């Protein structure tokens, strides 16, 4: 493995592998498009296509491993706060209760995890890691996201006046980056989600093959006109969606691009006080915040008075591959690298249907863990 003292070299090697994998995938996509148009001039044979896909996946796996190695190398910039795992004392309030603000504060809690239908560890914490993504990666992803989302509002335009309007908070879900056929955007986004996934697995000792993104999207919030949202109210991720087990937010914008937008953990008041204790995170570009999704981590996000703020929240679920439902079929045999590479491409990178992509997302842990 690369030297722990040389994260820059590790990043450069990973980027080179990633760009070569992207080049191969784009070549396969071009060949497939020509065949669909009835033009077989310069297209790949079935054997050539399979060989290219297997090579590209191998490159991508090596890239993912180097990305994880780089996170270990920048670990000196990591800040960990251990907290006691908490859950509602009333078992009826533990699954999809969807409580916010005062209703959430009114819950009686006890020590312990819920981890509904999951295989979580029994320790809880909050982790901040600077430099989890490079400035170049953040800037490139934001630029490509703007190609797919509607243009930003201007003062006085629909959705951009003095009153709160539509169109100022937009989420681009990973299923839509997959459907867009924009390989350079989707593959970069997938790389960053995989980087977060591996960091979560390593931080909490979760088997990598059992960890998958339940929900992933890129959030673009334009300040100045924004109404209160579900992010600016007090909430708990696992209270909102019971199979959110680990949460991650990767910050894409530099702090100079917007005002506000701090991520705020809130804890019970100490003895003799009525004020909850606030732990505020003022995000830096490329910073990753991860935490256990349970009731030990009440939090909210400050509104954004001005500027535009991009972030990539991801909510991970844990499930043993043997417990995945039959509706999410496994279509490759163990050890068949070609069939696996074909499925990663046809279900995860250039899916032909939403169901194909959902199948990929459910089996993400098996397909991309190497």
Structural description of this entry:
This protein is α+β, with helices and mostly antiparallel strands and 370 residues long. Helix content is 37%, strand content 19%. The protein has helices spanning 7-36, 46-73, 101-105, 135-148, 174-179, 183-204, 237-240, 337-349, 354-362, 364-368, and strands at 78-83, 86-88, 109-111, 124-129, 169-173, 211-222, 246-251, 263-267, 277-281, 288-292, 299-301, 308-318. The strands form 3 sheets. It has a 7-stranded antiparallel beta sheet with strand order 1-4-10-7-12-6-5. The protein has a 3-stranded antiparallel beta sheet with strand order 9-8-11, with no helix packed on it. A two-stranded antiparallel ribbon has the order 2-3. The two termini are 16 Å apart. The model is unreliable at 1-5 and 155-167 (pLDDT under 50).
């Amino acid at each position: 493995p690369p030297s722990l003292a040389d994260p820059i070299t590790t990043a450069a090697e990973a980027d080179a592998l990633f760009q070569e994998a992207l080049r191969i995938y784009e070549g396969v996509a071009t060949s497939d498009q020509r065949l669909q148009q009835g033009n077989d001039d310069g297209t790949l044979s079935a054997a050539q296509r399979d060989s290219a896909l297997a090579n590209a996946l191998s490159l991508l796996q090596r890239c993912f491993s180097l990305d994880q190695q780089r996170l270990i190398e920048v670990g000196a910039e990591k800040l960990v706060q251990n907290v006691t795992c908490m859950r509602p004392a009333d078992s009826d309030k533990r699954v999809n209760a969807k409580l916010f603000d005062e209703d959430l504060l009114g819950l009686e809690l006890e020590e312990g995890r819920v981890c509904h239908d999951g295989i979580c560890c029994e320790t809880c914490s909050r982790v901040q890691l600077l430099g989890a993504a490079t400035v170049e990666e953040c800037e490139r992803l934001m630029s490509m996201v703007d190609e797919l989302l509607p243009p930003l509002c201007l003062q006085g335009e629909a959705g951009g006046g003095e009153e709160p309007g539509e169109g100022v908070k937009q989420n681009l879900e990973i299923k839509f980056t997959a459907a867009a056929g924009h390989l350079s955007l989707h593959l970069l986004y997938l790389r960053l989600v995989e980087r977060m996934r591996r960091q979560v697995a390593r931080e909490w000792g979760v088997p990598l093959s059992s960890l998958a993104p339940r929900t992933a999207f890129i959030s673009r919030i334009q300040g100045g006109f924004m109404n209160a949202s579900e992010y600016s109210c007090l909430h708990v991720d696992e209270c909102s969606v019971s199979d959110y087990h680990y949460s991650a937010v990767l910050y894409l914008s530099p702090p100079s691009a917007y005002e506000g937008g701090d991520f705020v953990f809130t804890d019970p008041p100490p003895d003799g006080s009525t004020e909850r204790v606030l732990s505020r995170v003022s995000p830096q570009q490329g910073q990753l915040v991860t935490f256990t999704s349970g009731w030990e981590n009440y939090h909210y996000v400050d509104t954004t008075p001005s500027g535009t703020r991009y972030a990539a929240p991801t909510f991970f679920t844990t499930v043993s591959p043997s417990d995945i439902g039959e509706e999410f079929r496994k279509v490759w045999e163990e050890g068949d690298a070609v069939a696996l590479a074909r499925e990663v491409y046809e279900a995860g990178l250039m899916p032909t249907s939403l169901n194909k992509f959902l199948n990929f997302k459910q089996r993400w842990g098996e397909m991309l863990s190497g």
